[in-house]
Design a protein that fits this description.
The chain is an alpha/beta fold. The chain contains ten helices and five strands, in the order H-H-H-H-E-H-H-E-H-E-H-E-H-E-H. It has two domains: 2-68 and 227-249, no CATH class; 83-212, 3-Layer(aba) Sandwich (Rossmann fold). The chain is elongated. It starts with a helix and ends with a helix.
């Protein structure tokens, strides 16, 4: 129940949806039989300003950076660690038999898959764990990740799939059952890592962060125009803020 409530609430905090709501009210006051130009002006100006604030790159990079820069990338082998598992958290996926398994992954999911495979090359004794969930009757995303990894020359015996877990909170609990006190590498998008590590540590899992898919890279370019990448940055920042708050309210950290 809480999972679907969370998804419902998220519809109203998506930055572009907020923009549409503000502009919609502006048009309503402007086009009704007896227009209220003062209110229309307020909503239309606010909606336009909001659109700029959520889509201009230099600003939106400031929103996402605090989430992405908490943990560094795992570039080289750490001989002081004995990682038994590399856990790759699930993300967007579309079940389409016309496409290879790699192509069925969304952008974030593909970056996570690639990072998991890269780390498995560094730690060949570690097993890859793919999490996943089945939406609308399609096969679980973890199974697609397994198929993609096998197509990229990963030994099937080195792959474990965890199915049926809807979100990071449920995934962390299931991973704890599987790995026990073993050390793991946790792979997810950089913006998602802060919340994920908090949930995994809340389960007393010995996890080391291995973030990927960094949105904020290099130096910001001031002379740029608003774009969809900026909107995505803002959406990720709001999503992770709300998700972290949700976990805190439920006492998961």
């Amino acid at each position: 129940m809480s999972f679907y409530l969370k998804k419902f609430i998220s519809l109203f905090i998506k930055p572009l949806n907020i923009c549409f709501i503000l502009l919609g009210f502006g048009l309503y006051f402007l086009l009704k039989k007896e227009p209220d130009y003062k209110k229309a002006k307020i909503f239309l100006i606010t909606g336009t300003a909001w659109l700029f604030l959520i889509s201009w790159g230099p600003l939106t990079e400031c929103y996402i950076a605090p989430f992405e820069r908490v943990y560094e990338t795992h570039l080289v082998k750490d001989d002081s660690k004995d990682f038994k598992y590399i856990v790759v958290l699930s993300s967007g996926y579309a079940d389409d038999e016309r496409l290879p398994a790699t192509e069925q992954h969304g952008t974030q999911a593909l970056f996570r898959l690639i990072e998991g495979i890269r780390l498995q090359r560094i730690y060949p004794e570690a097993k890859l764990i793919f999490t996943g969930y089945s939406y609308n009757g399609q096969r679980p995303s973890g199974e697609a990740s397994k198929e993609a990894a096998i197509s990229l020359a990963i030994d099937p015996d080195n792959i474990i799939v965890i199915n049926g877990k809807k979100d990071t909170m449920e995934e962390s609990a299931k991973v704890k059952e599987l790995v026990g006190s073993s050390e793991i590498l946790l792979v997810t998008s950089a913006s998602h890592m802060l919340r994920s590590m908090a949930l995994f540590k809340g389960q007393n899992i010995q996890a080391t962060a291995a973030p990927c898919r960094f949105k904020q890279k290099g130096k910001s370019i001031i002379l740029t125009t608003p774009d969809s990448n900026g909107i995505h940055n803002t959406e990720r920042a709001i999503h992770e803020s709300a998700g972290y708050l949700w976990g805190w309210l439920r006492g998961k950290y």
